Amino acid sequence: MGKGVNRQIKWGKIALHNFIDILDYIKSDSPSNAKRVKTRINNIIKTIPSNPEMFREDELKENNDSSYRVFNKDGIRLSYKIEPKEIFIARVVHSSQEPHLY
Question: What is the reported pTM?
C-alpha cells in the first residue's frame, strides 16, 4: 500500500457519531479527561497518513484484505481503511462493548 502517499483523513458518519458519543459519556464524568482522550486519539489519527500500515490488521473485519487496520487507546478501539487517496475511519467502539465482526 505504501508510505509517502499524501492521504486525507475521512470519517465515516457512524464512526464519528460513535466517537462523539464516547467522548460525551466520558465528559459527563470528567470534562478534562474527555478532552485528553480526544486529543490523544486525534494525535494518533494524524500520524496514520505518513505510515498507514503502522498498526495491526483488524482481526474483526471479515474478509480483510489487510487494508483495514486497528489501534486501541484509552479504551477506544478505532478501525480505519487504507484507501489510495484517503484514510477512512470506519469504526469506533469502546472496549467495554462486546467485540463483533463487521
Answer: 0.89
In what order do the strands lie in the sheet containing 8-11?
Answer: 8-11, 86-94, 76-82, 68-73, 56-57
The string of pLDDT tens digits covering residues 31-49 is 999 999 999 999 999 999 9
What is the SS3 assignment for 39-69?
Answer: HHHHHHHHHHHHCHHHCEECCCCCCCCCCEE
Burial class (CB in 10 A: 0-12, 13-18, 19+), 83: middle
C-alpha cell at 60: 474483526
Q: Which residues of the chain have pLDDT under 50?
A: none
Burial annotation 40-75 (CB, 10 A radius, 16+ → b, else e): ebeebbeebbeebeebeebebbeeeeebbbbbeeee
| Domains of the chain from N-terminus onward | 8-94 (3.30.2310.20)
